[in-house]
Amino acid sequence: MMRMKKVLEVKNLSKSFGKIPAVSGVSFDIGENQIFALIGPNGAGKSTTLRMIATILTPTSGSIKICGRDSVKEADEVRKMISYLPEEAGAYKNLTGLEYLKFMAALFAENRATEKRYLATAEEISNLKDRLKSKVNTYSKGMTRKLLLARTVMIEPKLAILDEPTSGLDVVNAFEIRKTINQLSKRGMSVLLSSHNMLEIEFLSEEVGIINQGKIQEIGSVSELKSKYKAKNLEEVFINSVHNR
User: Fold this and answer.
1) Burial call 12-38: b when 16+ CB within 10 Å, e when fewer
2) H/E/C letters for each residue in 185-202?
3) Could you tell me where the DSSP H helices lie in the chain?
4) What's the pLDDT tens digit per position in 53-96?
5) For residue range 128-147, what is the model confidence (pLDDT) as tens digits?
6) N or C: which end of the chain has fewer CB within 10 A?
């Protein structure tokens, strides 16, 4: 059996703000084309972990490697291989959707040919069609999220880091974004996902890490975790793993 190539390797990752530890000794890997979900209660260290992997925060200790590159020592190289969608991301409201995507494509691309490719990818993934000609300030939350997801993955990163990608969306828009994430993984992208929606995690993730009080408590596939906790669903696993500690 061939071993899956590691796109992300996190080892003994810790982050403290002053004397307050936010993340303590977190370790996990993500393979090629894999969707990995990091879940936990509010204040557990999820977003801090994602921001360190996205090179926005510097770890206090431990290491992060993207395709073998060190995220601190080789941050510029790493940033070419990752893309990050924060939970509270926004777009420029006075631009049309297309103008926004063109602006972001020009920002990321090294030449005109790549810029055109990024824009075509973003148009396809957003699936907003004629609404791309409308200003972003006329968009619903679901449309804005689709636009932002398209911006995040237009560069075809090795690793997409998505923090609550469907937060606050209705059932139809959330379903469409989940479907898009699934398709992107099949096209060769690895995904690190954080969400409070346990059904979403079950639908999308091949592997799940449960974090609580800055530490990883469990890692496994959804079926492995349900079997271990004799649970009907991931929500029961989550509650039992977090509250029985």
Assistant:
1) ebbbeeeeebbbbebebbbeebbbbbb
2) HHCCCEEEEECCCHHHHH
3) 46-53, 75-79, 97-108, 112-126, 141-153, 171-186, 198-204, 222-228, 234-243
4) 999 999 999 999 999 999 999 999 999 999 999 988 788 889 99
5) 999 999 999 999 989 999 99
6) N
